[in-house]
């Protein structure tokens, strides 16, 4: 299997969102709330505890820094600083979510899309990264369509 790493949003971007309370690159105000639905923080990649965790909703370009054409969408982040995901393997709490993997070549060229079935995320990632044309993958929520994280070869 191809070795991979899961990449959350950058620490610098997360700190900037928390500090300025605006969406980077767009200037839209951030919305703060108590988590009232499931979903992960895009920094620590842990699922919010509904009714307990405070989170920030903001506009994020999932292709920022990788491609020129933007693709903004909504994402969440813990309101207070959290420990960014740096572990090996796939984040355990994300396995519980309905996931879709999307493979991209350079210039954001979409190659394939695959739902994760029965939690077999490593198998799907390995199969997709085995294609030499794939530069990176996006992990998305298959129900909401929102971006969660990027997967790259290790």
Please trace the helix and strand order, writing H or E for each element.
Answer: EHEEEEEHEE
Between the first and last Cα atoms, what is the distance in angstroms?
Answer: 11 Å
| Total beta strand runs | 8
Oligomer: single chain
What would you call the shape? globular
Mean pLDDT: 94
Range of strand content: 25-35%
- Can you tell me the CATH architecture of the largest domain? 2-Layer Sandwich
Number of helices: 2
How would you characterize this protein structure?
With 154 residues, the chain is mostly beta strands. The protein has two domains: 10-78, first zn-finger domain of poly(adp-ribose) polymerase-1; 87-153, no CATH class. It contains two helices and eight strands. Strands 1-8-7-5-6 form a five-stranded antiparallel β-sheet, covered by helices on one side. Strand 5 (99-105) and strand 6 (109-115) form a beta hairpin.
């Amino acid at each position: 299997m191809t070795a991979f790493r899961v990449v959350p949003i950058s620490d610098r971007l997360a700190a900037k969102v928390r500090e300025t309370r605006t969406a980077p690159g767009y200037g839209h105000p951030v919305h703060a709330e108590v988590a009232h639905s499931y979903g992960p923080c895009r920094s620590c990649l842990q699922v919010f505890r509904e009714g307990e965790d405070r989170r920030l909703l903001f506009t994020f370009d999932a292709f920022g820094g990788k491609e020129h054409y933007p693709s903004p969408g909504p994402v969440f982040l813990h309101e207070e600083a959290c420990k960014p995901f740096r572990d090996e393997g796939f984040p355990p709490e994300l396995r519980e979510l309905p996931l879709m993997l999307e493979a991209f070549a350079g210039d954001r060229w979409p190659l394939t899309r695959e739902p994760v079935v029965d939690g077999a995320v490593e198998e799907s990632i390995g199969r997709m990264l085995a294609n030499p044309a794939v530069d990176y993958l996006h992990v998305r929520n298959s129900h909401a369509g929102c971006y969660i994280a990027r997967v790259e070869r290790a």
